[in-house]
Amino acid sequence: MTNWEELLAVSRADAPADTLLSGGRLVNVFTGEIESVDIALHAGRIAGIGSGYDAVERVDLNGAYVAPGLIDAHVHIESSMCLPAQFASAVVPRGVTTAVTDPHEFANVAGPDAVRFMAAAAQGLPLNVVVMGPSCVPATPMATTGGAVGVEDLAALRDERIIHGLAEAMDYPSVIGNAAGARAKLDALAGRPIDGHCPGVTGPALSAYIAAGVGSDHEAVTVEEAREKLARGMVLLIREATNARNLDALLGAVTPSNSRRVCFCTDDRTPVDLLEEGSIDGMVRRAIERGVQPIEAIRMGTLNTSEWLGLNGVGAVAPGRRADLWVFDDLDRPEARVVYAQGREVAVDGRLCVDLPSRAMRPPRSGCAVDAASLELAIPARGTSVRVIGTVADQLVTEHLHLPAKVEDGYAVADPGRDVLKMVVAERHRRTGNVGVGFVRGFGMSGGAIAGTVAHDHHNLIAVGVDDASIRAAIDSVVEMGGGLACVNGSKVLASLAMPIGGLMSNRPIVEVATSYRALVGAARELGSSLADPFMAMSFMGLEVIPKLKLTDQGLVDVERFERVPLFVDAA
Amino acid sequence: MTNWEELLAVSRADAPADTLLSGGRLVNVFTGEIESVDIALHAGRIAGIGSGYDAVERVDLNGAYVAPGLIDAHVHIESSMCLPAQFASAVVPRGVTTAVTDPHEFANVAGPDAVRFMAAAAQGLPLNVVVMGPSCVPATPMATTGGAVGVEDLAALRDERIIHGLAEAMDYPSVIGNAAGARAKLDALAGRPIDGHCPGVTGPALSAYIAAGVGSDHEAVTVEEAREKLARGMVLLIREATNARNLDALLGAVTPSNSRRVCFCTDDRTPVDLLEEGSIDGMVRRAIERGVQPIEAIRMGTLNTSEWLGLNGVGAVAPGRRADLWVFDDLDRPEARVVYAQGREVAVDGRLCVDLPSRAMRPPRSGCAVDAASLELAIPARGTSVRVIGTVADQLVTEHLHLPAKVEDGYAVADPGRDVLKMVVAERHRRTGNVGVGFVRGFGMSGGAIAGTVAHDHHNLIAVGVDDASIRAAIDSVVEMGGGLACVNGSKVLASLAMPIGGLMSNRPIVEVATSYRALVGAARELGSSLADPFMAMSFMGLEVIPKLKLTDQGLVDVERFERVPLFVDAA
Asked: What residues of B are in contact with residue A7 (Cβ under 8 Å)?
């Protein structure tokens, strides 16, 4: 509850503020100008701006720039492989003080309670976490998930004030086609921001998607697509994810006249990227490097996002808003030197300087119930030609290949000489015993296997390997950790990372998680993988909503035809 | 209720639209560009934009421009002296399709039921009327009103979905000082748009006003004031009212970088101005004349306002929004040739081409209970020097003069030779019998009197005249009409306008009202008045919140000291 009496007394300069930031140069996102003014902070808010303020503590900014805290317009915190507190420890020192998150990864594992857990885990952090309601859990009925989020769950989460709006409406065919389930979810969050996800949707289909109530999109990849979406009234969220980098391309669609409708988001970033490259701060710097005016770039990471989402308490330095600020020295290359969250100095020189809340929170139940020994991994040769998932560098789409099967003793087996490895997706949530087995090209390993419980969006146990023994050992390693990632060769575990929270998140510090993750990628490379990040690549080989060919626990899915297909092209 | 099945089928181009506007040049307020596209309208909405649409009716725009319907960000419809339907008949043919209205004039007469009446009277019009909750009714306890709107009334109006936000928080000292009543009203509409009204407020007081939750202001009169308000985060509503013209001055504060935070409003316009000069359309043309880029000027009258107020169904041409459009031929001087409201062609060449809903609505009770014969108008000479309200040309502020009294037979009387006339404010709502009597300079009449029931904000019966007989006759004339305006000389009524609805609005067509109003002003000029509009001037001589000296039914008010003062400076 706001103590209005106290706040307004400070605003009026009738009482001293907690802190006065003096001598700074404010990046004024309202006017687009730099303004030399003092900023009075009190009780977590900005009380006043201008001269005439007194304070208990005075901080001389000595001409440094001060800007509103950055906002990530759309991020799956689970992709950091860490809990929200550790995600915060990576991004807050960068100047990101608000993250709009869609916990749909964990929700696929544990349903609406996962959403509640993520919201609760974000309480008391120096990061303002705004939770959006996952709209598509499960993504399709062609994979088995641990949880589901129905319209009644969304209504409950809305009434509990846990969710602010609807997260990416990925099932765009259902939205466009006015399917009852999709319509009911949009209606449940009517009047609130509804984020979109409509890769490549144009023309009348795009009009229908927007008419249905969707307000933004973060899937545009070309200038033409971005321009059409902007012209039709969508807010363009430019995404720069670990595995989907659209910033450089889409800046070509941004003009001084439309930039107010452009925001920045990271969507999915690995812990390594978050620590090395940062978050929205890195996008701001990159945009400036590419010729965007600095204040305009900062607006895309602040005011524009707060306006799109109706987050009127953040996104600008103005009386009454949260005192979330970052201080930097070089307007052409802003790097946070000091960060304030709710009026507290929370980070200095890239490191948090406050303690994160330490509390034992019990995450919702999630399973990793796979018995590797009993899995049927052998593939009797029922034909001579098999469907193979072909990876495409740096993309989530795959090729749908038909290749001759390599047959040994009546069984189709991996053929590392042609870079065709075995892939397994074992259901882990409900003990169904479902297992999908197939082949994938592009991982490049000449021996061993990798496995993990991160497999978008169903997050079953997924593995890619050369021989069944290595695959079983990798699965065993992951199961023993209660979820996580592993790289093995034969029976030897080369590297691993435990992620017991939903099989998606570690409870360790993000620096340690990043170190383990680097070791995992290094081990897979040692096995011969040529992919930049074979674990990230593997995690999308089971995603049955992105073309062309994918494998779930229920078998191979031809995404273009949206139906299951047999492994053998010429099955008898 | 939206028929989503039908709307989306049209959006997808799977079914024909009601109407297709083809061959037009869309003023795209999202991109700031002109775009040659077809626009499909269906069931009152914009269904789709682009090519590929079929329709029952095709309209070839032949290269004409088409823009989203204009929005008046803040207007008191009562100032048109007409009911909402007749206000609509004046502004809709101009391209104004949304009016954000604060019915605080009528609310001062009849309380929250007046708000309900104005909302109900706006149903079914070709104008989208958005009602804001009056925040300051009554304005002060120093005048007697017919109605009051308390915090519980605002909460009820909010829960009845009649009001969208809080209208101009005029009692800025109470907001800044955190007075309980003001705070409670802000809290009642928390999370919704809260319009401000803070003339000349700067520095820490401005910070406090904003910190309290106010988001906009329409009272800035100088570039410096406007710039400060913009920099502190207020949305700047540039006002061009009949009696408060700020557009030319404030355009100097608008830059390409801050214009997204600038909107247009008319606040108060007489029926004559509405018919001759127009509304927001006139502001757009004037802004263009003054050098604003046309699309930018149109944005200030459309998208900017819809974003500020969260009116996401209007303000732009986009799928799903209301099909409110205006068509014009000259981008440098846009004048509506055709107007569409909810997909219907509602006006052509400056005239409505649809019938307005005809229904008998009973307005809330309001009184005009003044017995002129029994009013005590004589002023016994209790001193030699009197306080006189000095009008200031084209301003609402007055001078606080001390002048020698003209005494005849022991009574202070009007002194037309020095342009000092008698002024009367008689309470009309509650039969209290209150009457305030004083003197005013600047009306210039050499004989006769004018009277009316429009007297901001309490709207008691106000009169200015040379002799008591004329004043009584003018009051009688107004009372006989059940409210309205009159100009008399002796016992002869020279001109009159009946306004029986609250004493504020006629139920006649606006063209007739304007004709009567012109006749009233002409008659007052015949009596010698040199004021451009003596009725408008008179209506502000009783407004006890605008400095320096004003007269209410309770007597003279020194606004700077905010207290009642005696008429005689040297009273015995």
From this structure: 211
CA triplet A222, A531, A475: central angle to 5 degrees?
120
pTM over 0.90: yes
Average pLDDT over residues B49-73: 97
Q: Token match 């007269």: residue?
A: B551
Alpha-carbon torsion angle A105, A106, A111, A115, nearest 10: -100
ipTM for this model: 0.95
Closest partner residue to A49 among B31, B32, B207, by Cβ?
B207
Residue B227: exposure state from Cβ atoms within 10 A (0-12, 13-18, ≥19): buried
Q: Which of A11, A31, A50 sits opposite B211 (nearest CB)?
A: A11
Which ranges of chain A have pLDDT less than 70?
572
Spatial neighbors of A569 by CB under 8 A, at least 6 apart, are: A383, A385, A386, A387, A402
pLDDT, residue A95, reads 98
Residues of A in contact with B320 (CB under 8 A): 210-213
For A253, the 3-state DSSP assignment is: helix
- Among A28, A212, A295, beta carbon nearest to B8: A212
CB atoms < 10 A from the CB of A281, how many? 23
Residue A572 pLDDT? 60
Q: Closest approach of chain B CAs to the CA of A356, in angstroms? A: 29
From the number of C-beta atoms within 10 Å of its C-beta (0-12, 13-18, 19+), residue A109 rates as buried
- Report which of B122, B33, B80, B507 is spatially closest to residue B341, judged by C-alpha positions: B122
Amino acid at the residue B373: A
Cβ-defined contact of B13 to A204 (cutoff 8 Å):
yes
Q: What letter would DSSP give residue B94? A: G
DSSP assigned state of B137: B
Q: Looking at per-residue confidence, does B445 or B369 come out higher?
A: B445
Nearest residue of B to residue A32 by CA position?
B257
